Amino acid sequence: MTRPVTARVPAKVNVQLAVGGLRPDGFHDLANVFLAVGLYDEVTATPADSLRITVSGADADQVPPDRTNLAARAALALAGRHGVDPAVHLHIAKDIPVAGGMAGGSADAAGALLACDALWGTGSSREELLALCAELGSDVPFSLVGGAALGRGRGELLDPLATGAAFHWVFAVADGGLSTPAVYRECDRLREASGTGATVEDIADPEPSPALLEALRTGDPAALAAAVTNDLQPAALSLRPSLAETLRAGADAGALASLVSGSGPTCAFLAKDTEAAEAVAAGLAASGTCRAVRTASGPAPGATVLAD
Ligand SMILES: C[C@](O)(CO)[C@H](O)COP(=O)(O)OP(=O)(O)OC[C@H]1O[C@@H](n2ccc(N)nc2=O)[C@H](O)[C@@H]1O
Ligand SMILES: Nc1ncnc2c1ncn2[C@@H]1O[C@H](COP(=O)(O)OP(=O)(O)OP(=O)(O)O)[C@@H](O)[C@H]1O
């Protein structure tokens, strides 16, 4: 009997999300500065009679336990590539908020790829795994790689970034999720409504901020706080106006920066150090503007197979 294999995969926050115009293929070009943070899902692959998915954790009931699950799609893609029978039980121990803009589904896809590759002995190279990740979703390659990285294209073309120190974050988890395609559509709608147009002809190519990259490199939280931006934030706020109160509560509690994480609705707050993060977390919890509060620091390592 082959031993189960468990992979641990981090969540992400986008410290810069610059969104270009709508491309003919329905995606947007990005300058997407990812930072992996220490909130993790674990995916365990065990031999089984057929493909089966189970999920545990507080948000488990919001995750589909079938072949639409990104982890199942990852296992099927890997099995298809190598001509292997995808008879595997994937158990997802979920700690990353679901539909929260923290790439939880992407984390599970990257974790399933890594765990199944080890279980099946398919020995994929890093390049093969990254190509499969990119097919599964724009955020999935970063879930594999972790750390800090600049994502170009639709976010799948990654260049690792150096970071000078750990950054301390507080996350305010909202009630209910936001659909990523709906948030991108709302971004386009707001751009149309403002008269700029929304396509690649109308919007300048997105570029990473030199000040932001420098702040990451030097590990300076105040400089990073001054440079964080998220072009999807107006769209997330338009779809979920109550997030403005959450952002204000974090700022009032002493956060250096308050922003929507990716497509939201999780809000991310940067703090000077772990002590300041605890104070921001307490202020947010007392504000009643979110369902749960989490603290985590980053950069965190990418998808990793855990030792027995
Ligand atoms: C918002 C972010 O989380 C920021 O990292 C990502 O851009 C979203 O990445 P993801 O969830 O992996 O998204 P995908 O599964 O690749 O795409 C879902 C949908 O989001 C929209 N989408 C996604 C990525 C991108 N660069 N442009 C887009 O317009 C498209 O409508 C697409 O059909
Ligand atoms: N393994 C999975 N974990 C979570 N959601 C999944 C998974 N597989 C499929 N889904 C579906 O995908 C939707 C988006 O979930 P996910 O948690 O990945 O969103 P997200 O964190 O906002 O993504 P991103 O930050 O990459 O845009 C969920 O509502 C759920 O129906």
TrEMBL record:
It comes from the Bacteria. This is 4-diphosphocytidyl-2-C-methyl-D-erythritol kinase. PANTHER family: 4-DIPHOSPHOCYTIDYL-2-C-METHYL-D-ERYTHRITOL KINASE, CHLOROPLASTIC. Pfam families: GHMP_kinases_C, GHMP_kinases_N. Residues 69-147 form the GHMP kinase N-terminal domain. GO terms for molecular function: 4-(cytidine 5'-diphospho)-2-C-methyl-D-erythritol kinase activity. The active site is at K12, D139. Pathway: Isoprenoid biosynthesis; isopentenyl diphosphate biosynthesis via DXP pathway; isopentenyl diphosphate from 1-deoxy-D-xylulose 5-phosphate: step 3/6. Residues 212-287 form the GHMP kinase C-terminal domain. Catalyzes the phosphorylation of the position 2 hydroxy group of 4-diphosphocytidyl-2C-methyl-D-erythritol. Keywords: ATP-binding, Isoprene biosynthesis, Kinase, Nucleotide-binding, Transferase. It catalyses: 4-CDP-2-C-methyl-D-erythritol + ATP = 4-CDP-2-C-methyl-D-erythritol 2-phosphate + ADP + H(+). Belongs to the GHMP kinase family. IspE subfamily. HAMAP family: IspE (MF_00061). ATP binds at P97, V98, A99, G100, G101, M102, A103, G104, G105, S106, A107. It comes from Streptomyces coffeae. Its EC number is 2.7.1.148. InterPro entries: GHMP_kinase_C_dom, GHMP_kinase_C_sf, GHMP_kinase_N_dom, IspE, Ribosomal_Su5_D2-typ_SF, Ribsml_uS5_D2-typ_fold_subgr. It is an enzyme of class 2 (transferase).
